[in-house]
Design brief:
Blueprint: E1 3-8, H1 11-33, E2 36-40, H2 47-54, E3 63-67, E4 69-71, H3 81-88, E5 98-99, H4 113-121, E6 129-132, H5 150-153, E7 162-165, E8 174-177, H6 179-182, E9 188-192, H7 195-207, H8 215-221, E10 224-229
Parallel strand pairs: 1-10, 2-3, 2-6, 3-5, 6-9, 9-10
Antiparallel strand pairs: 4-8, 7-8
Helix pairs in contact: 1-2
């Protein structure tokens, strides 16, 4: 498998081009099966992309939006990725889309792995588009190298599509798509917007194992398209 790169002169150019590519892929899925699904990541990087997408004319009522990972907090918490998506993506024209949450009312995320996995599986045979981010430690989704759950998160034989993780270097318990689920998608993107993150990625791919830098596991097992601007 491989990582291919598309580098843009500006973040604005990246967002415009990326939005068009995402919508083309979602439209192709709708044409084939009448519906489409997309999993997005949180953080500051995708916020402008969400805003661009939300204003696009599109049959959003045929699209389900979920997350690559979520912190185990309420949807009103400032650290919630669901809150970020609700405020920046599921607005304007994209308000017609369906959101699939990665949280439940369970106190412990571990108790919700089966329920969340079923929600994810109900989206279809695979998620049509997955947009990943990456931390400076090389984690992606909530597959953290520092977590006790990392080996299972990267286990390609894992049956459950979601996994509860507990990073030791970041707050909150998490719910994440497993590597096995991520690589089922025919369209996996890595969205980065800084020279520092690009350097981390290049170092991870060249000098570390997948356990040490989980983003390497994704690139080893599927085709990933890097969308990058400094």
């Amino acid at each position: 498998m491989a990582l291919s790169s598309t580098k843009f002169a500006s973040r604005e150019a990246l967002n415009e081009s990326f939005a068009k590519e995402i919508l083309a892929l979602l439209q192709s899925a709708i044409d084939k099966k009448g519906k489409a699904s997309i999993a997005v990541s949180g953080g500051s990087t995708p916020k402008a992309l969400f805003e661009t997408l939300s204003n696009c004319d599109f049959p959003w009522d045929k699209v389900s939006i979920t997350l690559a990972d979520e912190r185990w907090v309420s949807a009103s918490h400032n650290d919630s990725n669901e809150k970020l998506v609700n405020e920046n993506f599921l607005v304007n024209k994209a308000a017609a889309a369906t959101f699939v949450s990665l949280t439940t009312s369970d106190t412990d995320a571990l108790n919700a792995e089966e329920v969340i996995s079923q929600r994810v599986d109900d989206l279809g045979e695979h998620i049509d588009v997955i947009i990943l981010g990456m931390g400076e430690d090389g984690h992606t989704a909530s597959l953290f190298p520092c977590s006790a759950q990392i080996s299972e998160g990267l286990n390609l034989q894992r049956k459950l599509s979601a996994i509860a993780t507990q990073p030791t270097t970041a707050p909150h318990q998490r719910m994440s798509l497993s590597l096995a689920k991520i690589i089922q998608s025919p369209n996996v993107f890595l969205h980065l917007t800084s020279d520092k993150k690009l350097a981390v990625l290049e170092d991870a791919l060249a000098n570390y194992t997948a356990i040490e830098k989980p983003i390497k596991a994704v690139c080893e097992h599927t085709n990933v398209k890097l969308m990058w601007a400094s």
